[in-house]
Design goal:
Structural class: alpha+beta
Largest sheet: 8 strands, antiparallel
Shape: globular
Strand content: 25-35%
Number of helices: 21
Number of strands: 47
Strand order of the largest sheet: 6-7-8-9-17-13-12-11
Oligomer: single chain
Length: 925
C-alpha cells in the first residue's frame, strides 16, 4: 500500500470513529443521568463525568474536570512467551439498558477480549460492575486489571475551589475488605465511599499526576518496579469463548455519606468490616492493643504473620455485630494479622512494632547530637545539625550534598529539614537532661546560629534569620546569584517559617537553664529568654515588612504555639511590656483565624497539613483566654484594608475550634486501619510524616479537654501520637539495629516521611524511594518535637472497648485500676469515665515508672513524682477536668491544696518537690 492509499485509509477509519461517536451520543440524549435525592450521576458517551450528592450545599463533583470515572485499564497475554497487550479501551457503545442501568462496552470485532462497565443504581448509591470476557477461542491471561479514579483535588489559590470543591483521598487496600473514601477539604460532608463488593479484591495502586489507579490484578505492574509489597500481586486465567471460566465479573459500590459514622455503617451494610483499633497501629513491643471488627458476616479466624511472637485473644462483648480482640506483639517491625471471614474472604491489618517509646526518644536525640552535628571550626557550617542518609550510612552536608546543591542546599543546612533538630533536642532535655546533649546544643548556638544563621543584636535587622538555601549564601548576594535573581537588593531574612524553630530552641534552653543551671555554660536563663523574645519579635516584624506576601498573620507556622508559655514566663521575669507586645501580635493571628478568613488552613500550600497545629492553638487560646474588642487592629498591606473586631467572644473561638477540627480530620487517616495511615497525615493513601503529630496534637488535646464524647478523639489522637514512631530506625543487636535500614550505624536514625507505593516519587528533587521511610530524616524532627506536647498516659472507659489504656498496659483489680506510665515522657496522666474527666500535667520532672492507682470513678488517684535534678525545687502541677469538680491534694500524706476544675482551663498548684521526689494523692470532694 503506497503512502497516499495508507493516509486515505486512516482518514476513513478516523471519520468512521467520529461518526460512530456522534451517533452514540445522539442516541443517548434521552437518558444520560441517574438522579434522585441521594445521587446525581451524569454520563457522556466516554463514561461517567459527574458524581455528586444532590443534598450537597456546595454542589461539588468528585470527578476531576474533563475526566471520566471508572475507566478500566487491562493488560493481557495470549501466549506465555508473548507480549503483554493493552486492551482496546475506546468505548465501542454506550447502552441505556433501563432508567437505572447504563452499560459501556470496550471492544472491536476480531479482538480476543471485551470489557464492559455496567453502572446500576443500588439503594442510596450506585454499583459499578466490570465484566471481562473472551470473545475468541483463544485462552488468555489477564496480568493487570485496574480502575482509574481521577478525582477533583484541592488546588490553586481560590479558597472556595480548594475547600468547597476539592476532595482528599484515603485508601485502605486490603484484599476483599478494600475501600477508598473521599473527604472534602473543609471537612464537611458529604463524603464518598468507593468500596469493593464481595468477590472483588484490591491489591495495588499507582498515583501519578492526579491519575489514580487501583488494581484488581497487578502482576505485571508490580513486577516492573523494585521494592517490597505486603499484599499479593495476582493475575487470572480466562478460557476461550463459550467455555467455562471464559469471563469474570468484579464489582464496586459508591455511596455518599453525611458523617464518618455513616461511612462505617455503609461498609457494614456492603458486607465489609468496620475496624477500630486502640491505642494505635504503631505499638511498642509488649503493649496490649485492642481492636473491634463490626460486620454482619462471620469471622472465621484471625491469623498472625508471626504466630510464635504474637499473643491474640478474643474478648467478650454484648454489642451487636461486634467482635473484640486483644493482641500483643513481641517481634519488632511490620506485623500482619489476616482476617478470614464470610467463608472464603480475607483482608489484612498491618501493625508496626517498635522498641519502648522512652528508648526511641533517647536514641533519637543521642543520634542527632552524636552523629548529625558537623564540628569543624574551619567550615562556615561548624555546629550545624544536618541530614543523615540511612541508605549510605553517612552524614550529608554542604560539602557532601548527595546532589542537593544551590537552592536545594536548604535540605542540608537551613529551613525546616535542618533547623528542626535543635529545638527537638532542647525540648526533650527539659524533661530528660543529658549533659552531652545540652553541650551540643550550646555549641550549635555559639558556632552556627548566633552571627551565622541568625543576625546578632549588633547587625542591621537584629535577630533576623537567614533562610534558604543556607546562611552563607543568604548573607552574600553574589552567592545568591547561583540560585535566584530577584530581591538581591534586600537582606534575606524574610522566610517566616524558620523563625519559630529558633525561638522554640531558645525558649527550651531558657527552661533548661532555669531548671538545671549547672548544666548550661553559654548563656543563663534570662539571656536565653531574651533571645527567644527578640527572635519572636523579629518573626512578626521582618518577613511581612520586607516582602508583604509573607502573610505572617494569615498562615499557621509550626512551633509558633510555644509563644503562649513564653509570654507567661516573660511576665514572671518582670518583662511585662515584652509579654504584652507578643500578646498583641499573637492575638492579631488568633482573631484573624477566628473572624477574618473562612478557610485559614493554608501555609506554604493551598491546603497544608502543617496548618492545623497553629489553627487549633489559636482556637484554644480564644476559648480559654479573654480577648478585647478592637478597632483597626492591623492593616493588610496586600488587600489594603483594616481588620477590626467590634465583638470578641469565647463562643466564637469555640465555634472555630470545631470548624478547624473537621478540616483537620479531612487530611487525617481515620477509617484506614493500617499503621502508615491510621492517625497519620493521610491525604494521598498513607502520607505518614512529621505532620502526623503536628495536627494530631489538636485531635488528642481536643479529646482530653473539650470533646463532650471524647472516645473517638482519644482513639484517633493517640494513634496520631504513636504513628510516626514507625519512621525511627531502631532495634536490638538481634534485629541488626533497625527494620528499615539495618546496621548499628543507623540505630536511632529516622525517615522523613513514608512512601506507601512499592516504589514512588517523593517531594525531594524528583527522587523516588522504595516502600517505607525515606532514607533521609529531614523534617521528621518537627514531628518529634511535638512528642513533648502529646505524650500522655491515659485511662478511658470506652463504650466499645471498656476500660483501656493509652501509654501503657492497664491492670484491673476489682474497683481499682493500675497503670505504669510508658508514654515516653511521663509528665501527663488522665482518666476519662462517662461522667468525670481529670488531667494532670507536670511543668518539669516526671511521674515515676511505678503504678498510678485510681478507682473507676476518678475519685481517688495516687501517683509518684521523680525529682530529676536531685535537689528540692518548685514545680507546677496543672489540672483540667470536669467543670465544678473539686479535688483535695496531698503530698506525702499532707494536705497541700484544694482546687476546683474549670473544664479546659488550667488550674495550677505550685508544689515544692523534695529532693527524693514525692507521693501525690488527689481525693475528690
Amino acid at each position: 500500500m503506497n503512502l497516499l492509499m495508507r493516509n486515505g485509509f486512516f482518514r476513513l477509519i478516523f471519520l468512521w470513529a467520529v461518526l460512530s461517536y456522534v451517533a452514540s451520543a445522539m442516541a443517548q440524549q434521552h437518558q444520560v443521568e441517574f438522579k434522585d435525592e441521594n445521587l446525581l450521576a451524569r454520563f457522556s458517551p466516554a463514561g461517567m463525568t459527574q458524581l455528586s450528592d444532590p443534598q450537597d450545599p456546595y454542589q461539588a463533583n468528585i470527578i476531576g474536570r474533563g475526566q471520566v470515572w471508572g475507566k478500566v485499564k487491562l493488560l493481557y497475554q495470549m501466549r506465555s512467551d508473548g507480549d503483554w497487550i493493552e486492551h482496546y479501551d475506546w468505548v465501542d457503545s454506550m447502552r441505556v439498558e433501563s432508567p437505572d442501568q447504563i452499560v459501556y462496552t470496550d471492544y472491536k470485532t476480531g479482538m480476543p477480549i471485551q470489557v464492559e462497565r455496567i453502572f446500576s443504581k443500588s439503594g442510596k448509591g450506585m454499583d459499578m460492575t466490570i465484566r471481562v470476557e473472551t470473545k475468541m477461542q483463544y485462552p488468555l491471561t489477564v496480568g493487570d486489571l485496574s480502575v482509574v479514579l481521577p478525582w477533583s483535588r484541592p488546588a490553586g489559590e481560590d479558597p472556595k475551589r480548594i475547600f468547597e470543591q476539592g476532595f482528599l483521598k484515603h485508601q485502605f487496600l486490603s484484599g476483599d475488605g478494600s475501600y477508598i473514601y473521599f473527604t472534602r477539604a473543609n471537612g464537611k460532608g458529604p463524603y464518598l465511599l468507593f468500596c469493593a463488593k464481595p468477590g472483588t479484591r484490591l491489591e495495588y495502586f499507582e498515583s501519578e499526576g492526579g491519575q489514580y489507579r487501583v488494581f484488581i490484578h497487578s502482576a505485571v505492574a508490580a513486577a516492573k518496579v523494585e521494592g517490597t509489597w505486603r499484599l499479593g500481586n495476582t493475575s487470572t486465567r480466562l478460557n476461550g469463548a463459550q467455555q467455562a471460566n471464559s469471563s469474570r465479573e468484579y464489582g464496586f459500590h459508591m455511596e455518599w455519606a453525611d458523617s464518618y459514622e455513616e461511612l462505617r455503617d455503609i461498609l457494614v451494610e456492603q458486607g465489609l468490616i468496620d475496624i477500630r483499633v486502640t491505642p494505635g497501629m504503631t505499638l511498642p513491643a509488649g503493649w496490649n492493643s485492642r481492636f473491634a471488627l463490626r460486620t454482619k458476616t462471620a469471622i472465621d479466624s484471625i491469623v498472625p504473620e508471626f504466630k510464635e511472637q504474637t499473643q491474640l485473644r478474643t474478648l467478650p462483648t454484648t454489642l451487636l455485630q461486634q467482635h473484640l480482640y486483644e493482641v500483643n506483639f513481641s517481634r519488632l517491625g511490620e506485623n500482619k494479622l489476616t482476617i478470614y471471614y464470610n467463608h472464603g474472604q480475607q483482608q489484612t491489618m498491618e501493625f508496626f512494632v517498635t522498641e519502648a517509646l522512652k528508648t526511641l526518644i533517647e536514641k533519637r536525640t543521642a543520634f542527632i547530637t552524636q552523629k548529625q552535628q558537623h564540628r569543624d571550626s574551619s567550615k562556615w557550617y561548624n555546629g550545624l545539625y544536618s541530614i543523615w542518609d540511612m541508605k549510605n550510612k553517612v552524614l550529608r552536608g554542604p560539602d557532601n550534598t548527595d546532589g542537593f546543591d544551590f537552592w536545594w542546599g536548604y535540605v542540608l543546612a537551613s529551613d525546616d529539614p535542618a533547623l528542626c533538630k535543635a529545638p527537638f533536642v532542647a525540648a526533650k532535655n527539659v524533661y530528660a537532661p543529658v549533659d552531652e546533649e545540652i553541650a551540643s546544643l550550646e555549641y550549635y548556638v555559639e558556632h552556627f546560629l548566633w552571627g551565622g544563621l541568625q543576625r546578632t543584636d549588633k547587625e542591621s535587622y537584629p535577630y533576623g534569620i537567614h533562610g534558604v538555601p543556607n546562611w552563607q549564601e543568604a548573607r552574600d548576594s553574589s552567592l545568591r546569584l547561583r540560585s535566584r535573581d530577584y530581591n538581591l537588593d534586600k537582606v534575606k531574612v524574610w522566610r517566616a517559617y524558620d523563625y519559630p524553630h529558633i525561638f522554640m530552641l531558645y525558649y527550651h534552653l531558657f527552661q533548661i537553664a532555669e531548671y538545671y543551671p549547672d548544666k548550661v555554660k553559654h548563656l543563663d536563663a534570662p539571656h536565653y529568654l531574651e533571645r527567644a523574645y527578640q527572635t519572636a519579635k523579629a518573626y512578626f516584624t521582618y518577613p511581612y515588612e520586607i516582602n508583604s506576601w509573607y502573610d505572617t498573620y494569615k498562615w499557621g507556622c509550626y512551633n509558633e504555639l510555644v509563644l503562649v508559655p513564653m509570654m507567661a514566663d516573660l511576665e514572671r521575669y518582670g518583662k511585662k511590656e515584652e509579654a504584652q507586645w507578643l500578646r498583641n501580635e499573637w492575638e492579631k493571628k488568633v482573631k484573624y483565624f477566628v473572624y477574618d478568613d473562612p478557610y485559614p488552613y493554608r501555609s506554604e500550600y493551598s491546603i497544608d497539613r502543617t496548618a492545623f497545629e497553629s489553627s487549633y492553638a489559636f482556637a484554644k487560646y480564644g476559648v480559654t483566654t479573654p480577648m478585647k474588642p478592637d478597632h483597626k487592629l492591623w492593616y493588610d498591606r496586600n488587600l489594603h484594608k483594616w481588620y477590626s473586631h467590634p465583638e470578641v467572644l469565647p463562643t466564637d473561638s469555640r465555634k472555630f475550634m470545631d470548624e478547624q477540627l473537621w478540616a483537620g480530620l479531612a487530611v487525617r487517616g481515620w477509617l484506614t486501619p493500617s499503621y502508615y495511615a491510621l492517625g497519620s497525615d493521610d491525604s494521598e493513601g498513607g502520607g505518614l510524616s512529621y505532620m502526623a503529630r503536628m495536627g494530631g496534637w489538636s485531635i488528642l488535646d481536643y479529646g482530653i479537654h473539650f470533646a463532650e464524647k471524647p472516645w473517638d478523639w482519644l482513639q484517633l489522637g493517640y494513634a496520631s501520637y504513636l504513628s510516626s514512631y514507625a519512621l525511627i530506625n531502631s532495634g536490638t543487636p538481634e534485629t541488626d539495629y533497625g527494620y528499615w535500614y539495618p546496621g548499628k550505624e543507623n540505630d536511632g536514625a529516622s525517615g522523613w516521611a513514608f512512601n506507601t507505593k512499592k516504589y514512588g516519587r517523593i517531594w525531594l528533587k524528583e527522587r523516588s524511594v522504595p516502600r517505607g521511610p525515606w532514607n533521609y530524616d529531614g523534617e521528621i524532627d518537627l514531628g518529634n518535637g511535638a512528642i513533648m506536647r502529646m505524650a500522655a498516659t491515659l485511662i478511658a472507659h470506652d463504650p466499645l472497648f471498656g476500660w483501656i489504656a493509652y501509654g501503657g498496659n492497664l491492670e484491673e483489680r476489682k474497683q481499682q485500676l493500675r497503670i505504669i506510665p510508658q508514654d515516653g515522657l511521663n509528665i501527663r496522666f488522665g482518666i476519662f469515665t462517662g461522667q468525670q474527666r481529670l488531667m494532670l500535667e507536670l511543668s518539669r520532672d516526671r511521674f515515676a515508672e511505678a503504678p498510678i492507682i485510681t478507682d473507676r470513678s476518678a475519685e481517688q488517684i495516687k501517683l509518684q513524682i521523680d525529682n530529676l535534678s536531685g535537689k528540692s525545687h518548685n514545680l507546677d502541677l496543672k489540672l483540667t477536668g470536669t467543670a465544678g469538680s473539686t479535688y483535695q491534694l496531698r503530698m506525702d500524706g499532707k494536705r497541700i491544696a484544694s482546687v476546683m476544675l474549670d473544664g479546659g482551663k488550667e488550674s495550677i498548684v505550685p508544689i515544692e518537690l523534695p529532693d527524693k521526689g514525692a507521693s501525690i494523692e488527689l481525693i475528690k470532694n
